[in-house]
Amino acid sequence: MKLEANRKSTILIVDDNPDNLELLLFSLSDSDFSILLATDGESALKRVEEVCPDLILLDVMMPGIDGFETCRRLKTNESSKDIPVIFMTALSQTVDKLKGFSVGAVDYLTKPIQQDELKARVTTHLTLRNLNLRLVEQNKRLQEEIQKRHEKEAELLLSNQAIAASINGIVIADARAPDMPIIYVNPAFEHITGYLATEVIGRNCRFLQGKDREQPALDDLRAALREGKSCTVVLSNYRKDGTPFWNELTISPIHDSSGILTHFVGVQMDITERKQAQEELRLQQEQAEKLLLNILPEPIAQQLKLEHNTIADSFEEVSVLFADLVGFTELSSHRSATEVVEMLNVIFSKFDQLAEKHGLEKIKTIGDAYMVVAGLPTARSDHAEAIAEMALDMQQAIAHASIELGVTFSIRIGINSGPVVAGVIGLKKFSYDLWGDTVNTASRMESQGIPDAIQVTPQTYERLRDKYQFEKQGIIRVKGKGEMTTYLLKGRKSQAKDECC
């Protein structure tokens, strides 16, 4: 309510007794007041809505709604809650007075009412009300002046209108005020965040963080604000409708002519599309990495990414294993292509798992043949033991696959140990492969072996004889090598002892 100069104060008198109304009207007639009358609570509430008096003299005991209820309703209404109410009653009990104060009365007059006391109390409470209204108006003017000052400061800081028209969000915060409230945002900020300027002026920018207030970048931002420094951070923020966006925020301090920090200017960019593109690129790179590692050993893949020249290395000590499914070609002639591929996938997947278990490097599959090596690309002294364990486990795996697929499979395995050359060949669909006599001889051990047996060369036998059981196969003629004594790997020595006992 705005206070007008030289305005008469309006008093509403509410009492159901005509004699009381007449007496009160007479008692206040020589005072400079405008007097309104009401005979019950309902009519009093209507008069208040129409006129909004400066003070109400309210009888307690009335028909319909009594004075207590009338006062309670006045105090719950925004337009009448600040109007002082003085109760008039013959009730003198303390509990009644306490009840009146609890519903919002400011004073009590006990009937019969004394004229001098009535004038004194009415004058006092009207004076207090007028003082309060003046304070409210002064405070309002002060807030308007502060707002105008902020707006003026923002205009000075943004004298270049290109800033206001920027496609980037611009925020100015008052560094001198507690909690650094926002004093200006440009239209781009409204577009990016969905908040209107009127909704954010006076607030700290942290409302954009939602519940995500544990971001590491926030520590950098807070440190810069404390130290009055510039910084750029990328934050996970939220628009007014709750949708997330990535905000690249750059803050810069503003100082006055005395070097005192007065404001911070923040420039924000919505980089959500950029972050999404980066994430998609990262996922694509991960997929490409996985595909590359399916083809090449990890050290070779890393070397290939760094170098474009030929990759070739010599390894003095490795063990090479070849395995072949016996009779699979004939079996596949009676099956559909899909069935053949599915059976090979089941079997070779089991072999791949075993290779990973024993730390071996799968080289390739050719038809129904499988090739794996131990001791490269990272050298290991137990390469022969690792390849022997792989071979024994492959025999168990092929037995399990026979049960799983309902087809009886038989496998030949050949092993040899010694030096090899390994490298990447080809420009398209390149592959990692091995060359050398060790590889050729291992292949011969498989092709000239017997079903369900693991045939090894003397080189492998010498490395394993103390830990594994062997059966001497005898002398066989190996293509390209002449006569050679070979051995059949039967199992681990500890396993053989356990079986005997």
List keywords for this structure.
Alpha-Beta Plaits; 17 helices; Beta-Lactamase; alpha/beta; Rossmann fold; 8-stranded mixed sheet; 501 residues; 5-stranded parallel sheet
Write up this protein.
By secondary structure, this protein is an alpha/beta fold. It folds into three domains: 9-137, Rossmann fold (3-Layer(aba) Sandwich); 161-270, Beta-Lactamase (2-Layer Sandwich), CATH 3.30.450.20; 310-500, Nucleotide cyclase, GGDEF domain (Alpha-Beta Plaits). 44% of the residues lie in helices and 28% in strands. The protein has 17 helices and 18 strands. Strands 11, 12, 13, 14, 15, 16, 17 and 18 form an eight-stranded mixed beta sheet that branches. A five-stranded parallel beta sheet has the order 2-1-3-4-5, with helices on both faces. It has a five-stranded antiparallel beta sheet with strand order 7-6-10-9-8, with helices on both faces. Strand 4 (85-89), helix 4 and strand 5 form a beta-alpha-beta unit. Helix 2 packs parallel to helix 3 (67-76) and helix 13 runs antiparallel to helix 14 (383-405). The radius of gyration is 47 Å and the shape is elongated. The chain starts with 8 loop residues before the first strand and ends with a helix. The mean pLDDT is 84.
What amount of the residues lies in strands?
25-35%
Q: Could you tell me the number of beta strands?
A: 18
Largest sheet: 8 strands, mixed
**Mean pLDDT across all residues, rounded?**
84
Shape verdict:
elongated
At the first level of CATH, what is the class of the largest domain?
A: Alpha Beta
Taking all Cα atoms into account, the compactness measure Rg is 47 Å
